[in-house]
Amino acid sequence: MHTSPNARTIALLLLTLILAGCGDLGGLLGNQPTPAPIILIATATPVPPSQATPTTDIVPSPTVAPPDTPVATSVLPTAAPPTPTPAPQKILARVKERGYLICGTNADLPGFGFYDNVRQAWSGFDVDFCRAVAAAIFGDATKVEFVALGTGPGPNNRFDAVREGRVDVLFRNTTWTLGRNISGLAFGPTTFHDGQTFMVRIRDRITKLEDLAGKVICVAKGTTSEQNLNDDFAARGIQFTARVLNGEDELYPAYDEGECDAVTSDSSQLAAKRQQLKNPADHIILGDRISREPLGPVIARDDNQWLDVISWTVFATIYAEELRVDQRNVDRLRASTTDPRIKRLLGLEGNFGEGLGLPNDFAYQIIKQVGNYGDIYNRNLGPNTVINLDRGPNKVWNLGAGGVLASPPFR
């Protein structure tokens, strides 16, 4: 078949057009205009208004520009960076800077916290734990200022003083509870396992809880004693009348004056307060307990270093008694012991004190100047004191007789 030159030229032209348009055959065959692809190119060159496409404003995340990349200068005002708020000073640093510890305690509870106006001296189980903290920090148990605090409302409320930083630590027969723990307070190890009971007059022949039905019972306002009384007697179905008073200063005088048939609190407090009544021998403390009261130190929350200092001060007194290290033999053992546990406790091996922000011999200073747990207990509450309070569960675990006190090991 013969093809003319004009026909060949037309065929080549058609083939060229087909090959050139193969990228969009659908558009060519459908005789539809091909949409131009939109390419977004980062540029500082303004787009002419006629070509601008309305878009939603996007705020870019801050990034670091690569080297030699031009960055457009923003015309929007830039806020100055906020001034950093200094972290509150840690309590241990504050105490060291001040040069002495401020410890909240009781001033009117013989055996636990008591201020003798005649001798102008502080004494008691809780008071000695304040001294133990001072010995741990400064190597001097006398570097402590005591602040008398109460349970009632007002400027001397014990918990307000802790939260507001007016005291560094509180040792004041205070029960560890969940409600207190979540209200800005932190608790150290239990120093005294107690329970709530009642003090009554012998002449009333009250010997058990059921005998309190229909009686008037004095209790301190806002304490765990008040809640325990209501909870326990409601569960037992015992009807009674509560005489609620503001703090211990009102509580025991009201009972002593006959305004109520019984007074309720921790057994240790009742034993101490009985000695201050007009005729202590006329009163007895019931053997029944309506609660368990773990008493111990209280500090402001969110200072783990300070909580460690307080905790390991308490543990040092307990661990020392576990190992039979006391105020009388500590110097001899320090010079001659081969027991690695005692060496670590007394700071002869390891750097555990430094890890707490304390001298490595902090436990030695506590034991030497204040004593181990048994020394502290017997001096203030033991058989040779007016209180003469049986230790009960407040014995170290490895000495038998139902003791529950224990310390994590110093290792």
From TrEMBL:
Gene Ontology terms: biological process: amino acid transport
Record's protein name: Extracellular solute-binding protein family 3
Keywords (A to Z) from UniProt: Signal, Transport
Solute-binding protein family 3/N-terminal domain ranges (all copies): 100-333
Stored SMART domains: PBPb (SM00062)
InterPro entries from the UniProt entry: Bact_solute-bind_prot3 (IPR051455), SBP_3_CS (IPR018313), Solute-binding_3/MltF_N (IPR001638)
Family: Belongs to the bacterial solute-binding protein 3 family.
Domain of life: Bacteria
Taxonomic source organism: Roseiflexus castenholzii (strain DSM 13941 / HLO8)
PROSITE patterns xref list: SBP_BACTERIAL_3
UniProt key word Nuclease: no
